[in-house]
Amino acid sequence: MTGGTRTRFFYHLHVICIRGFFIPAFLAALLSASGVESAAGESASRFIHQLGNQTIQTLHAADLTHAQRESRFRNMLAERFDLAFIGRFVMGKYWRMATPEQQDTYLALFGEYILQTYSARLEGYASQSMTVLGERQANDKDTVVSIAIAGSSGPAIIANWRVRATADGYRIIDVAVEGISLAITHRSEFSAVVKRHGIDGLLTTLRDHTATTQTTASLY
User: Fold this and answer.
1) Under a CB-based contact definition with an 8 Å cutoff, are residues 32 and 128 in contact?
2) What is the Cα–Cα distance from 2 to 19, expressed in whole angstroms?
3) Does the pLDDT of residue 7 top 70, yes or no?
4) How many CB atoms lie under 10 A from the CB of residue 8?
5) Beta-carbon neighbour count of residue 67 at 10 Å?
6) Strand residue runs (E) in the chain
7) Enclosing domain of residue 178
8) Under a CB-based contact definition with an 8 Å cutoff, are residues 17 and 185 in contact?
9) CATH number for the domain that contains residue 73
């Protein structure tokens, strides 16, 4: 894949995820989740609530450098998100076509891509407020927690967090903002890259992007 193609691909993802709603809404929810009051039976809401508390504590820890805050935030995301599940879903039908080595490489690169994208933008979204609208059972494993996020101007943004019960506790498997799923958006974009350049082309794109994220994030 050429440098121009890689730039266009990730620029499009950043326009959707950063200039749009995903990352501002996601971080606003984490930073304001400490205000959520959960009833005894609302385990999924309490899970989001606890993550918000940890995020705020990290953000306001005076003894931590920015790099240390980012590192702690990355660890929290890695623990709370089911990155392997999301990565396989995003890969879609191409997951079964990939070799075991390609699968392992892809999951490592995808996880790093997600962690870099979110953790690098931790600071700067502390002014929003969040209201939990409720939660519903999507199936026997998943609960969707709906929240409304209000900033300093404009209408509130509605976000739905899909949380799955696992043997290790709850894990986030998707965030949908204003009806647009982060996982499905990535699935569509990744599929387009694989169709044009193959699985190795996607791996190269992710590898190049994760290696340069810290130097290019300010462009978006």
Assistant:
1) yes
2) 24
3) no
4) 11
5) 8
6) 129-137, 142-150, 157-166, 169-177, 180-181
7) 3-219
8) yes
9) 3.10.450.710
CB 161 within 8 A of CB 154: no
pTM over 0.85: no
% of the chain with per-residue pLDDT over 70: 68
Question: Can you tell me which residue has the tokens 């979204």?
Answer: 125
Angle of helix 182-216 versus helix 83-91 axis, rounded to 10: 110
pLDDT in tens, 65-121: 878 877 887 888 888 889 999 999 999 999 999 999 999 999 999 998 888 877 665
Radius of gyration of the chain (CA): 17
Tokens, residue 132? 């939990």
Query: What pLDDT, in 10s, does the model give residues 130-166?
Result: 677 788 999 888 999 887 777 666 677 788 889 998 8
| Residue given tokens 């509605």 in the structure block | 158
The number of domains in the chain is: 1
